[in-house]
């Protein structure tokens, strides 16, 4: 008799736990990147109740396992470029002040007062610093300073110039090319072309006397087709008086590696004109914005028009996600069951891709959860009713004595 009470009690406990799991799922319907769970049951047998194996009587039910569904949640646009959603496999790696690593799919990120990329709870996002040569540094906190990046002095210039073939000897044309010194000051270089003979022009460079002086001159010879004859790239030397590094040597790229004209300077029957120019220097720049691409590369855009790849966000993957331990706030820690984290970057190997300005939503299916809740509730009510019946039977037995 008492065994039947125990059997009913196992049912009450099992279905109560299932209802708790369902309640947790429903309560987290709007939780970013939340993964729903399901409950599986196993029967309890009491072999002592019968010596005949075929007559074994069940002794109740127990919750065998609570399994997490790792299916992809849909993406919801937020408009915040710091928000990230993972499509496919992977977890973001975050650390607390003590250096403890956690793993999460929730990508609600922001920059703190120290320019660190952190979660809403202040945990540091982990990534790789991108070196100037494009290689990746070691795994570390992502810190993107809003300070000024230094200027870069110009070392090479190009200019698309046409010199009018109808010009007379002694005619001149001047073109101005903007360059930068080591302090980021703009230094315009004026190149004056003078026709010295048929198909031959001389040139000389100059800068504003308040900035310093320039030295550089030469001769340009053109063929009958209007193309510049072969030669070597000339240099222009700036002797600056404004506190920048001096002298500053600039190569004027007129020829390719074989010594042939690159076609930038021509002599055609058309007005002398400067149609295009370029140089490799920059002024100092203040960070204006940050962007994150699908591979997790964080690129800074600066006030001088320069862009620079700064960090790449790291992702982690496990051989058994089911073995991860939940710690709250959408965080997990690895266990011996989950296996050691494999760390990489989005879009490589088994890792998914990132979407900036979006978040992964919960994968809870409300229709499924509601149906499961009704079934669990009815099962719980049936067990409770059975408990009442068992109690009434026991009371009847007692009254008979």
Q: Which features would summarize this protein structure in a list?
A:
single chain, 401 residues, alpha+beta, Tick-borne Encephalitis virus Glycoprotein, domain 1, 3 domains, 9-stranded antiparallel β-sheet, 6-stranded mixed β-sheet, 29 strands, 41% strand
The residue fraction in helices comes out at 10-25%
Q: Compute the number of helices.
A: 2
**Coarse morphology:** rod-shaped
State the secondary-structure class: alpha+beta
What value does the Rg take, in angstroms?
37 Å
Low-pLDDT segments, ≥5 res? none
The biggest sheet, with number of strands, parallel, antiparallel or mixed sense and barrel status, is: 9 strands, antiparallel
Number of structurally distinct domains: 3
- Tally of DSSP β-strands: 29
**Beta-strand residue percentage:** 35-45%
Distance between the termini: 15 Å
Task: Please describe what this structure looks like.
The chain is built from two helices and 29 strands. It has helices at 2-27, 366-400, and strands at 37-45, 58-68, 75-77, 84-87, 91-95, 101-104, 109-111, 117-119, 124-130, 136-141, 148-149, 156-162, 172-180, 186-197, 200-206, 212-215, 217-221, 235-240, 248-252, 265-266, 273-279, 285-292, 297-302, 307-317, 325-328, 331-333, 342-345, 353-356, 358-360. The strands form eight sheets. Strands 5, 6, 9, 10, 11, 22, 23, 24 and 27 form a nine-stranded antiparallel β-sheet that branches. Strands 12, 16, 18, 19, 20 and 21 form a six-stranded mixed β-sheet that branches. A four-stranded antiparallel β-sheet has the order 13-14-15-17, with no helix packed on it. It is rod-shaped. The chain starts with a helix and ends with a helix.
């Amino acid at each position: 008799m008492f065994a039947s009470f125990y059997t009913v009690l196992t049912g009450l406990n099992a279905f109560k736990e299932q209802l708790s799991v369902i309640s947790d799922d429903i309560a987290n319907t709007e939780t970013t990147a939340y993964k729903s769970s399901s409950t599986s049951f196993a029967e309890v047998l009491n072999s002592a109740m019968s010596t005949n194996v075929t007559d074994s009587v069940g002794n109740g039910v127990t919750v065998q396992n609570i399994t997490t569904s790792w299916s992809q949640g849909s993406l919801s646009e937020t408009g915040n470029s710091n928000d990230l959603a993972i499509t496919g496999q992977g977890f973001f790696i975050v650390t607390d002040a003590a250096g403890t690593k956690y793993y999460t799919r929730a990508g609600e990120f922001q920059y703190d007062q120290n320019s660190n990329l952190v979660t809403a709870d202040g945990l540091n996002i982990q990534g790789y610093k991108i070196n100037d040569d494009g290689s990746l540094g070691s795994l570390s906190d992502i810190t993107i300073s809003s300070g000024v990046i230094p200027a870069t002095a110009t070392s090479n210039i190009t200019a698309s110039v046409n010199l009018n073939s109808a010009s007379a000897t002694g005619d001149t044309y001047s073109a101005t090319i903007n360059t930068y010194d080591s302090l980021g000051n703009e230094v315009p270089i004026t190149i004056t072309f003078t026709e010295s003979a048929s198909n031959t022009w001389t040139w000389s460079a100059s800068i504003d006397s308040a900035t310093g002086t320039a030295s550089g001159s030469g001769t340009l010879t053109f063929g009958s087709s209007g193309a510049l004859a072969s030669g070597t790239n000339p240099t222009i030397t700036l002797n600056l008086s404004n506190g920048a590094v001096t002298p500053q040597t600039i190569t004027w790229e007129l020829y390719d590696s074989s010594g042939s004209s690159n076609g930038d300077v021509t002599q055609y029957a058309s007005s002398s004109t400067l149609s295009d120019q370029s140089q490799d220097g920059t002024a100092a720049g203040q960070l204006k914005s940050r962007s994150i691409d699908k591979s997790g590369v964080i690129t800074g855009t600066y006030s001088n028009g320069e862009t620079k790849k700064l960090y790449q966000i790291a992702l982690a993957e496990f051989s058994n996600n089911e073995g991860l331990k939940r710690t709250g706030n959408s965080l997990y820690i690895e266990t011996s069951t989950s296996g050691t984290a494999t760390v990489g970057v989005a879009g490589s190997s088994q890792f998914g891709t990132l979407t900036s300005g979006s978040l992964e939503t919960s994968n809870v299916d409300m229709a499924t959860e509601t149906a499961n809740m009704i079934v669990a509730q009815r099962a719980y009510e049936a067990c409770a009713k059975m408990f009442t019946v068992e109690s009434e039977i026991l009371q009847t037995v007692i009254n008979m004595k």
